[in-house]
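Severity: low
Component: inverse-folding endpoint
Summary: output formatting inconsistent between runs
Steps to reproduce: submit the following structure tokens with default settings.
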């Protein structure tokens, strides 16, 4: 897994320290892994028709790493829960992350439509 150093922007293949500046990358690697685990767990919940837990895991993944995959899972979970306004917002976030993965996410809050 390639890790871009937040200190010097060097892409690293090593997962513990930046090969250029020596910055500790381990915490970032752990955050990425936790985001991936939440995504896998959410996907499993969705396959079991458990939209509520799928959405919860997608939100956890999204908070850890703003990935298009997390937004897509949240979109599908919202459709399953018939929360169409939130689904539309997640769809927009997923599309935005796919087009501009390195940019900061715009202020589109998918949260707030709770039932
Ligand atoms: Zn570095």
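Observed output (run 2 of 3):
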């Amino acid at each position: 897994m390639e890790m871009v150093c937040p200190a010097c922007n060097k892409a690293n293949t090593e997962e513990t320290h930046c090969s250029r500046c020596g910055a500790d990358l381990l915490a970032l690697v752990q955050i990425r892994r936790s985001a991936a685990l939440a995504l896998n767990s959410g996907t499993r919940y969705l396959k079991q028709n458990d939209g509520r837990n799928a959405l919860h895991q997608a939100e956890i993944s999204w908070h850890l790493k703003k990935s298009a995959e997390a937004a897509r899972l949240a979109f599908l979970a919202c459709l399953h829960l018939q929360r169409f306004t939130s689904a539309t917002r997640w769809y927009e976030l997923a599309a935005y992350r796919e087009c501009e993965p390195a940019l900061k996410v715009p202020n589109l809050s998918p949260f707030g439509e709770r039932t």
